[in-house]
User: Fold Lipoprotein from Myxococcus virescens.
Amino acid sequence: MKQTFAVLAALAVSTLVACGGIEAVEPQEELGQESSALVSCSTECTTGPSLSCWGTTCSASNNHYVQCDGNYQYCPTTPPPPLDCSLSREACVNVLGLACAPSGSTRKCCIEDMPTGNCQCMHNGQWMCTIPVEDP
Assistant:
């Protein structure tokens, strides 16, 4: 009887293994999560417009450079030429809405033959100009 029981037990175990009834349970690994945030850096340039950029990493050195994700932008080494208000392309009304880059850079524009307007390159890649208003 013991032999019959041993044969039946061996047959049952081999059937379970063959049908996938006995499996080793492996521990579940936790899924890794990665997150990143955009950061912004900017610098003022005495010889030209300010510089700025966005990325996951950035650094800046005033009056030298700005760097985002390994891409450098350098301040110009010579100042831009003076604004020529006799040219219509320098008028604030003609600069407003034009394409620009990089975002955050600035420039002057002319109001009635005076270089008193300021424009900034917005995130949408267009110039937005402000005009100083004098108190009456």
About this structure: DSSP finds two helices and eight strands in the chain. The first strand starts at residue 39 and ends at 43.
